[in-house]
Amino acid sequence: IVIVSGIEQGLFVLQPNLSAGPTPTSTNTPGPSPTATNTPGPTTCTVYNSTNVPISLPNGVASINSNLTVSGGGTIADVNFTVNMAHVWVGDIGMTISHNSTNVTVLDRPGVPASTYGCSGDNVVATLDDEASLPVENQCAGSTPTIGGTFTPNNALSAFDGQSSTGTWTLTVNDYYTAGDPGTLNSWSLEICTAG
To answer: pTM here?
Structure first.
């Protein structure tokens, strides 16, 4: 049933006759070409471990560097950083990751300036992930490691998003109190997710 109305004609209720009409002939006329979209493909995540560790950070030394090489990477969609650092009084240290002229400070003297000298606990065994819920800068547990778990970094690792993951990544650990409190960078790694 089809209802048809017009302002001047009124309302009509019709019952169409659905008899078969002529069979349409096929044509070779191509349809419209599909348009490209910017929908990203799936991401692939790979963990890369630094191989030049452990590295000691003795008294009197202000900083150490450790490198990690990524070959055959892709366009970065996400980066997560995991570190195992033995250090007395973690409020003395800061960590920066560098790649392709981008530098991201992921840890910056936790507890400073909340207290005069920062977190007095020992050791960091943590993963820093932009999607975590608690900031690493506010961590200072009474147990060892004093920073243990998954936290958001001091500055977002998303600064690397859209870059090529291929090449050398450098972790720099700074000690802001070189007269005491030595440490050792035991290990670190990056989980890099690339757009497919």
So the answer is: 0.76
- Preceding peptide of 113 cis, ω within 30°: yes
- pLDDT single digits (tens) 83-129: 999 999 999 999 999 999 999 999 999 986 655 678 999 999 999 99
Query: Which tens digit of pLDDT belongs to each residue from 13-55?
Result: 767 666 655 554 544 544 444 444 444 557 899 999 999 999 9
